[in-house]
Structure formats: C-alpha cells, structure tokens
Amino acid sequence: MLNLVIIALLAYLAGSFPTAILVGKLSRGIDIRQHGSGNAGGTNVFRVLGWKLGVFVMLVDMLKGYLATVYISQVFFFPGEVYNPVYLEILAGVFAIVGHIWTIFAGFKGGKGVGTAAGFLFGLIPLAALGGMVIFFTLFFIFRYVSLGSVCAAIGIPSILIIQKLTTNPELEPVLIYITSAIALLIIYTHRSNIQRLLNGTENKITSLKGGNAK
To answer: How many Å apart are CA 6 and CA 28, to the nearest integer?
Structure first.
C-alpha cells in the first residue's frame, strides 16, 4: 500500500511542475494566468508568448504525463507484488493530470490537463492516443478552435477503444474504457467555459500561428 501512495505522490508532484507559469516568469517576467485566457497551459502561452514557447510548454506538459505513466508507475513496483502494472500506470497518469490541473506549486491553479492527459494516454494506449491526436488536429485546422479539438479528441479516445473492444481486440481491458471516459469528462469539466463560449459563438480562434500578444 505504501508503494501506491509513493507512486501517486511522485506522479502528482511531476504533474504539478508549473511549466507555463515558469516560462512566463522566465521569458517575460509575467504571470501567464493574468494574460490571455488566464489559463496556465500551452495554448495560452501560444497566444500570449508565441508559438515556440507554446509548443515547448505543450511538449513538457505531455512529457510529465508520459514519464509518470511509463516510469514513475514502475519505480516502486516489485515483481513479487500482486499489482497489475496497467493499474499502476493508470494511478500514476491520473495523479499527474490532477497535479497539472491543481498544481501545489501555484496555489492549486494550473492548466486544463489536455497536454498531460495526452502524454498519459500515449504511455498507456499509444494507438488510441494517436487517433485522438488525429481528431484534434483535423478539427483544429478546420475550425481553429483548440478547445473544440481538445474536447472532441478526449471523447474520441474512449470511443476508439469501444470500437476496438467490439471488433479487433475483444481482450481489451474494460478499465481502459472506463478511465479514458472519466478523463474525457474531466476535460469537458475543465473546458466548461470554453464550451459555453463555443455555444455562444464567442470562443477565441487561433487564426495565426505566430501568437505572441503579451503586453
């Protein structure tokens, strides 16, 4: 049991690393949460500080979720124990996402969890995660809404797993469908204001890949 607590704690701390906030402070001396959308994530960094820093933040946030899933989950796992490695990966990945959204290093106000969730899913179910990435980029390049692509990709991943379960991979563990569905609900929750703006027609588009509007 102590092993599970240690894995969860380390994964939470890894996810809590405030990438966007640090990048804002070090590059421009600003709190990114006081600019743009107010979100401490890669998309807001993209808008406020430019595409290079935005991409950097997105990649680091993905790396947090990926490393928690494939590395931290196994550090305190010993072969003689009865834990299923898949459940340990899920435990670590979920706590990394929680850490990103509610980071202990910045007053429990972090990002929306998309990047860290993507890294977690690439570590856990890479093919389905790739399918989600295709959904995201397809919708983004058509409509230019990051939020729309993120929410639809989150919903698309458990849908892909359900299709796999019913067709090509009947041995797929149901827990993967359950956890990706829960993550999709979490992503919808963290994007609730974006969804409202999408419905109202007031959501911000990314019309230029240059970004960089910090004042």
So the answer is: 36
The single-letter code of the amino acid at 11 is A
Question: Are residue 97 and residue 44 in the same domain, yes or no?
Answer: yes
Which stretches of the chain drop beneath a pLDDT of 70? 76-82, 209-215
Give the length of the chain: 215
- The verdict on 146 and 96 lying in the same domain is no
Segment (H or E) for 150: helix 146-166
> Cα separations (Å) of 98 from 11, 17, 31, 78, 114?
9, 11, 21, 25, 11
Per-residue model confidence (pLDDT) at position 215: 47
Q: Environment class of residue 83 by beta-carbon count within 10 Å: exposed (0-12), middle (13-18) or buried (19+)?
A: middle
**Both tokens assigned to 85:** 């490695």
Q: What is the structure's pLDDT at 2?
A: 76
Lookup result for tokens 């299923």: 84
Q: Does 73 fall in a domain?
A: yes
pLDDT computed for residue 177 by the predictor? 97
Residue linked to tokens 């550090």: 75
Are 93 and 148 in a shared domain? Answer: no
Specify the number of domains making up the chain.
Answer: 2
Nearest to 61 by CA among 104, 96, 24, 106: 96
Are 24 and 101 within one domain? yes
Closest CA to 45 of 26, 64, 28, 24: 24
- Count CB neighbours of 109 within 10 A: 14
Q: Which domain range does residue 138 map to?
A: 125-208
